[in-house]
Specification:
Blueprint lengths: L2 E8 L3 H11 L5 E4 L8 H5 L1 H18 L15 H23 L5 E3 L3 E5 L2 E4 L4 E9 L3 E3 L15 H5 L7 E5 L3 H13 L2 E5 L11 H14 L2 E3 L2 E9 L2 E8 L2 E7 L1 E4 L3 E3 L32 E3 L10 H15 L13 E4 L4 E6 L2 H6 L4 E7 L4 H5 L6 E7 L5 E8 L2 H4 L1 H8 L4 H4 L14 H19 L1
Parallel strand pairs: 1-2, 1-6, 2-3, 6-16, 8-9, 8-14, 9-10
Antiparallel strand pairs: 4-5, 5-6, 7-15, 11-12, 12-13, 17-18, 18-21, 19-20, 20-21
Helix pairs in contact: 1-8, 3-4, 3-6
């Protein structure tokens, strides 16, 4: 007889693990199915943590190689990639062991298999076990996309997994794509010593983010020596001897570039093909992600989905929120939908890009009366002395009262600085509210006060004009 559970989670990554932990507070009848080897999830094993470990190492190397900017004579700075890779493995092993201990703690039943739906309440595992559940959560994450680009399927290109495991500096790499992963790894490889060519289809990289922010990163990339092409169309990818060759259109002409290696960073797609979701009555979006309502319910109200396989944003803290929301709702507890007006995105290039809330363009398109003010890093004391002159801080607020509606920061440590403004969004604070706090001088954070002061000044001026 199949074993029965109140809540079965398929996938033990960030969404699934946190959903299971939340469900345990409401019922002992919880199971997690995860056949991945090793356990841990994308973020810990092949995403956020290993990439940021390596990116930070590359940043240290970059500063050492440019010590002359600070009056420092550093004769030589070279990466020992075997030691870099060993350090990354040690750090990730520690993170993964913590997640593995949580999954194998015995608090819920863990099945080390892959699941496939038989019907809306039954899954068969790859070891033959059959489970029945009152409610399910699909949290199977994503896999590397292989879009129909001529020659891509036939050419053995690296994925992000391969780059994160490198223990040598590649002589040269062609990076296909301009999204977050493509940009972070292109700069990482370039700073470690590879000759990098980056090819992006859209008119600018990071196309999901404000164009002004992307242009700053493009400028930094080109200044560092990355050969970056945007607004392209790939005609063919092929092997040319022991090298990779990409033929593409750019600026009305055909261009060819070759490199020792190629990196497919053209995005990721939902990892749902093996689940037999049709048998469970679960619909998919046109992009392959699972269709869900604001409570993470799918077209089958007893099956939920969260994380990368559901979207609409592939961000770890969103996946955790979605998983916990799904568990509460599935088990009959009060659950408020996620407020995507508080969306927070960070790109770990250098300069970093961080966006909180809505952009000025989005707000104006929605008919909002707003004030937007910006201030550049190259006119700010602390960033100047740090030689961190790329970028700007921009704050968008309601014209009526100065309530913060959105912000973007491009620059040194933008991912850290943005939290002052994402907190303001969550608390419905105004520009005037934020200026009541002390801002220490000289700090990077202090740069945020300049657009805030401009917003307050413009509102006061408008009110003064009305009174007169």
């Amino acid at each position: 007889m199949p074993k029965e559970y109140d809540f079965i989670v398929i996938g033990g990554g960030s969404a699934g693990y946190n959903a299971a932990q939340q469900a345990l507070e409401l019922t002992p009848g919880v199971a997690v199915v995860d056949g991945a080897d090793p356990l841990g999830g994308l973020c810990i094993l092949r995403g956020c943590m290993p990439s940021k470990t390596l990116i930070y190492a590359a940043e240290i190397l970059h500063h050492a190689r440019h010590g002359d900017r600070f009056g420092l004579d550093i004769p030589s700075a070279q990466p020992d990639m075997k030691r870099v890779a060993a350090r990354k493995r040690e750090i990730i092993a520690d993170f993964a062991s913590y997640r593995r201990e949580g999954l194998t703690s015995g608090k819920f039943d863990l099945y080390r298999s892959h699941a496939r739906f038989r019907d809306s309440h039954t899954v068969e595992l790859s070891d033959g076990t059959v489970l029945r559940g009152k409610k399910f959560l699909v949290a199977t994450g994503s896999v590397v996309a292989r879009p129909p680009v001529p020659g891509l399927a036939e050419t053995d290109l690296w994925t992000s997994d391969d780059v994160l495991d490198l223990d040598f500096v590649p002589e040269s790499v062609i990076v296909l794509g301009g999204g977050i992963v493509a940009c972070e790894l292109a700069q990482y490889l370039n700073r470690m010593g590879s000759k990098v060519v980056q090819i992006q289809r859209s008119s600018h990289i990071l196309r999901a983010l404000p164009e002004a922010a992307a242009r700053v990163v493009e400028s930094a990339f080109r200044d560092e020596g990355i050969e970056l092409f945007t607004d392209t169309r790939i005609r063919e990818i092929r092997r040319s001897g022991n090298r990779v060759e990409v033929v593409f259109e750019h600026g009305g002409r055909e261009i060819r570039r070759t490199a020792a290696h190629g990196l497919n960073a053209l995005g990721r797609v939902a990892n749902t093909d093996s689940l037999n979701l049709d048998a469970a009555g679960v619909d998919l979006k046109p992009n392959g992600q699972v269709e869900t309502n604001p409570y993470q319910q799918t077209s089958n109200p007893d099956i939920y989905a969260a994380g990368d396989c559901a979207g609409p944003y592939e961000i770890v803290h969103i996946a955790i929120q979605q998983g916990e929301l799904a568990a509460r709702h599935a088990l009959g507890q009060p659950a408020d939908p996620i407020d995507y007006n508080l969306l927070l995105t960070v790109v770990f290039t250098d300069p970093q890009v961080a966006v909180a809330g809505a952009t000025e363009a989005q707000l104006r398109a929605a008919g909002k009366e707003v004030i937007a003010a910006a201030f550049p890093f190259d006119d700010h004391g602390k960033s100047i002395l740090m030689e961190a002159k790329y970028g700007y801080v921009k704050v968008t607020a309601a014209r009526e009262d100065g309530k913060i509606l959105g912000a973007e920061i491009v620059g040194k440590d933008a991912g850290e600085l943005i939290h002052a403004l994402s907190t303001a969004l969550a608390l419905n604070a105004t520009a005037s509210d934020l200026l009541k706090a002390p801002w220490y001088h000289p700090t990077l954070s202090e740069i945020i006060t300049y657009p805030l002061e401009d917003i307050v000044s413009e509102i006061r001026s408008a009110k003064s004009t009305l009174r007169s």
